[in-house]
Structures are given as structure tokens and as C-alpha cells.
Amino acid sequence: MLALSFGGDGVEIKRSVPRLADVARLAGVSPITASRVVRGEGPIAQATRQRVLDAVQQLGYVPNRAAGALASSSSKLIGVLIPSLTNIVFPDVLRGINVALAASGYQALVGVTEYDPRIEQEIVASLLAWNPEALILTGFDHTDATRRMLDNHKVRIAELMEIDETPIDVAVGLSHPKAGLEIGRHLIAKGYRKFGYVGHDWRADRRSRLRYDGLRAALADHGLGIVAEHYSEGPSSIQKGRQSLASLLEQGRELDVVVFSNDDMAVGGYLHCVAAGLAVRDDLALFGFNGLEIGEALPHALSTIYSDRFRIGKIAAEKLLEQKSRPAEQTIIDIGFVLREGQTA
Amino acid sequence: MLALSFGGDGVEIKRSVPRLADVARLAGVSPITASRVVRGEGPIAQATRQRVLDAVQQLGYVPNRAAGALASSSSKLIGVLIPSLTNIVFPDVLRGINVALAASGYQALVGVTEYDPRIEQEIVASLLAWNPEALILTGFDHTDATRRMLDNHKVRIAELMEIDETPIDVAVGLSHPKAGLEIGRHLIAKGYRKFGYVGHDWRADRRSRLRYDGLRAALADHGLGIVAEHYSEGPSSIQKGRQSLASLLEQGRELDVVVFSNDDMAVGGYLHCVAAGLAVRDDLALFGFNGLEIGEALPHALSTIYSDRFRIGKIAAEKLLEQKSRPAEQTIIDIGFVLREGQTA
DNA sequence: CTGTTAGCGCATTCAT
DNA sequence: ATGAATGCGCTAACAG
């Protein structure tokens, strides 16, 4: 506990947290000089700088960012909204954002929307209250009220994961319809004809629906369709993939390949095959999406599409940092995807 | 874009972001009354409240929290430091924290330390700058400078995951040495005698070392020891578990059970067994730690210890919210663990 | 139930 | 290279 004296009338006031003025007094300079040293701004004599730095050290001074943000109306804060923490994809995005921000002293303020635009709206409101310099959203699905708020404030906006609609400012991601199309073409080229599909809740994950649509388009081009489908409620998981494939197969339709809404589900499907004694690829081929590590590590590497979530986050954050204000026109950054042929399809 | 007029000299100044004074003017009340309505504080006449709320709506007013925090010196911010986003355990903790905070309008400010106390120190400094009301740290391993900073500020502190040292204020977690001990006792009771161990970097994960120590203690009680060990660099992963078990077995020591530093590694080990044609449990038993979903979904459910990360985060956040200031004495909250006997050991 | 006064801690804009 | 004056937008502590 520090004890700093104030006032010339002999009264001693104890404050536990020193402020810039205390640093300045101890260093024998004005507050603004101390401020400049702390922020590494403007030309400062070497000797002065050192005295201020010593004072900072001695007092354990930590600047008050709320005051700084208010005075400078710049917060060095970036708001981030992700739909979920359960799906490892989004922590990956966060990692990318964090890496990009860490170097430049920015801080991420994170909110989780649970895939609900109304929750997104509430979080946008509460994040905007901190005057972030930019906002990173997931996808294009926002309420009108959200769009109005974003318009009122001058924050730069990035929308992540998708690129198939017109972004507010900048979109960073990949084309999910195209990914679905690629999956279909690949599997058709491989000779598969009897397609099954295992999905999770579309309300919870619009992008998996886009891939599904792309897949169907590819099949339609060859006069094919999806023979049997099964959907589970709520977020994707390995267990649900496993159970869903079991349910799908119980429908009794003859299938030679099953496409899954993502790798979690597909890994579950793989594990069902192992447990049920089905020869993966020969009896039944499997295809996922995301390129998770677990898929690679399976005894038969999962055939899937790899998307670089880390890079999506990193590039989005970098892009936002290099802009000084809202751009005049929209930018779309397609980070692409890679079809990884494993041993399951 | 809003257009508000200011000044009586006929000059029109356009501001894009309305402030409390604008709301007050439009509602025909004083700023402080508007402030009270917005914050839901104090007794306000129903009619007044409604007029203010309408003005807020009409202007799209969003309060400036930096100003609010400065004026009230309370931020409704909780700083959170986690070691990693790669390990799913920590997003789980974050979920718990988020759930607890969401209800009460608090916001989490998250930093990632990469298991490095010096990085933790830097992040603590930059988080303290925002005057958080509490800080959630992971583990007990902090630098002296970090401890000094925490002492200077009056923030409440929670330390998560471990409970085997004296916390600063409150610790929420489980006893890792005890978990290791339980693993050892269970396996010995099951008749296993020839123990192998597969671990990842201890510098990166002190808690896995504590479990290892507990395991060895249990073995020592029965005159046993660990026959062969293998460690990989860096964070744990399925791939590393798979490769590490392969390397361990190449050492040629006869083993009947292998304990892994966590489930990621153990799942990798399982997949190696499948690929190598080893009968899990009969040829080689496997044991993990964490209770991840993937372990349950394997054809042979992984034997492991389940820890409720979500609950750790939730309880810690709740505890911090219910405290108004730093408590006089330390509290340890043991959320315990459950040994889940699967089919691998 | 509502308003007045004052100031939170810092950074901007000009001076010197 | 350094400093003085001023205000960022809001809320605490009183009054009425």
C-alpha cells in the first residue's frame, strides 16, 4: 500500500493507486511530460525520460485507460463477437486476432452470441459503449438495429468466415457454397453416386447450410441428389455425429458416401463405422469440413476441406489495424480452402 | 447519421454520436435524470422514465462507458487470463465465466499468457489499466512484479484450476496431486503393474506435473515405479500423443498400462493402438485426464478423470461478483473430480 | 422525485 | 523540449 501526501495544510490522504500527477511530481516534471514518456510520444530529453520511468517504476504506476480513452477518444480496443466457444473453430479465430493485436498494444473485448442475432445486437450495444476502434463480427446475419448502431458509430467493421454477401466494410473468409460444390465434384470424380448427408442445426450454423446447398448443386449437375439425410438438434459434436450416422443408416437406404456438416460430426461418423465394423471408404466413404487435427490423427485420415481459421482472425485484425477510418468501399478477402484427400473418401 | 444542432449563434455542428446531454435535452430533463434512467437507478417518475427511454431510442444513444467508469470508478469489467486457447479446457472455462457474467451486465477482458508468467505480468498491467473490478488468473505461478501490482490495486482475485497452494484471495479448482494419486490407486487396484507415462512439456503445463507426482506417489506406496516415459515438446495434441506412444513402445520395455498427461495425448495413444493393431486394455491399457467428449466417443470409451472446467469458470465468476471488496481471508473451493472408468483401463 | 455543482485522470492544443 | 489551460462524457454527493 502506497502512502502519498497531498495538500499543503498538513492533511495526509492515503491513496492506494498512484496517478500520472504523482509520477510527475516525483519526477519533477509536469503531468503532460510524464504522459508523453509513458506513451512513448513526442521528443523527450533522455534524462527526463529516465527520471519519469524511474518514478513509474517506484510507484508501480499503471495508467488509467478509461481516463485516457475519454480524453483522447481512442480506446485501443477491438470488439470481437463470435458465435460460440464450444466449436474449436472460434477459439482458433480468436488466437489469430490475439496474435495480430498483441504486437500493437490493442486489446480484444470478446462477446459470445450463441448464433443468435438478437444476442449479437445486445453485445454490440454493450461493446460500442467502450468506444472500440473496430468491431469483428461473424457472418452477415445481423438485425436491422445492429446495422443502425454500426452506422451511427464510426467503428470499422470486419465480418468473418463468409464472403458470399456484400460486407459492411470488409469480409474475411471463404466461400462456403464453393466449398460444398468442391466436395460434390470431388466425390463424384471419385465415383461415388449414392449420397447421404448428416447435419446439425442450421439455425445454429448458417454456413453449413451454404455448403449443403453447394453440394446439392454439384450433384444436380450430374443428375444426382442426396438419398438420405439426418439432422441433430443444437451444436455439432462428435457424439451427435456418431449417433446421427447410426440413425441415417437405420433408414435402410443404400449409400456409398456420407457428407457431414463438419469434422466433429464426421469424426463421430468414423467412430460409428469402427464400432459397427464397417470398412471406411470401401463399405462407406466419409467426408467432413474444417480440417481439424483429430481428423488427421484417425487411423484413416479424414477426407475434408481445410480452412485456416487462425489466418482469418489474424488477417481481419491486421486489416482493421491498418485502416484509420471506415473505408469508402467494401473489400472481400478470400482466404480460400484446401480439399484434403485423406483415406475416408 | 444524426444531425444535432448546437450553440445559439446559428452555427450547426454535426456529431455522429449522441451523448447523454442530447438525450436529456430531447427528453426535457437534466443529464443526471437521464443518467439515472439509463442505469435503472433511483426513484424516477414513470412518465419521465418513458420520455427519456423514447429519447434514447430515437437518438440511438449508447452510453460512453469510459466516461462512466472514470466518473464512478467502477468499470463492470472482469479481467481474465488464461494460458492458452489451443487447449479446449480454457475455452470451457471462459464459457463458464461468460455465463456467470452475462446475467449481471459484466464484461470479460481476456488475455492469453501462453503459460508464461512474464507475459502474464504484461497482460495484468494492461488489464489493470482498465480498472477491472476483479481479475481471474490461472494457477499460482505469478512473478513478484505481478503480485505487487495486484497488491497495489484493490481488485479481487481468483486463481483457477489448482487448489494446492495458498491463494491470493480465492482459488477454484481441484487437487491435481490427488487426481494423480487416484489414477495410480485405480490402476493398481485393476491389477496393472508395469506403468508407462506419456507427457507433454511441463514448462507449459505445471499441473500435469502435479498429477505425475501424485501418480508416482501412489505407485511408490506399492513399491512400484514408472518403467518408461516419453515427453514431447510444446503443447499437448492428439498427434503428439500418437507419436509419443509409438516412441515409448519402441523403447522395448514391457508395459501393461500407459498414463497420459491428458486426454488429447491419450486419444492419440488410442489411435496409435488401433493403427498398430494393439488390443486396447488387453495388450495395453490407457488412462487420460480431463474427460473430453472425444474420449467418450471412442469405440472404447477412454478411462479418464473428468474435471468440470465450465463450473470452475462459472463458480469463480459468481464468487467474485458476490464479493464487494477483497476478502480478509483466503478461500479454497474444491470442485473435485470424477474418475470415469471407461473401457481402456 | 429531480436538479446543481464539481471532478474523475488524462490528452489535446496551443504556447513558450 | 516542456508546460498551462481546457474539456472528454459521465456520475457522486449533496440540495431542494
Full CATH superfamily name of the largest domain in chain A? Response regulator
How would you describe the oligomerization state of the chains in this entry? homodimer
Helix content of chain A: 40-55%
Query: What is the CATH architecture assignment of the largest domain in chain A?
Result: 3-Layer(aba) Sandwich
Put simply, the count of helices of chain A is: 13
Q: Find the CATH topology of the largest domain in chain A.
A: Rossmann fold
**What ranges of chain A have pLDDT less than 50 throughout 5 or more consecutive residues?**
1-14
What series of H and E elements makes up the topology of chain A? HHHHEHEHEHEEHEHEHEHEHEHEE
Whole-number mean pLDDT of chain A: 92
Number of domain units of chain A: 3
Task: Write up this protein.
The structure is a homodimer of 345-residue chains. Chain A has 13 helices and twelve strands. With 345 residues, chain A is of the alpha/beta class. The first copy, chain A, has three domains: 2-59, lambda repressor-like DNA-binding domains (434 Repressor (Amino-terminal Domain)), CATH 1.10.260.40; 75-174 and 309-337, Rossmann fold (3-Layer(aba) Sandwich), CATH 3.40.50; 176-306, 3-Layer(aba) Sandwich (Rossmann fold). In chain A, helix 1 (20-27) crosses helix 2 and helix 10 crosses helix 11 (263-276). The termini of chain A are far apart. Chains A and B meet through helix 4, helix 5, strand 2, helix 6 and helix 7 of A and helix 4, helix 5, strand 2, helix 6 and helix 7 of B. The first copy, chain A, binds a DNA duplex (16 and 16 nucleotides) through helix 2 and helix 4.
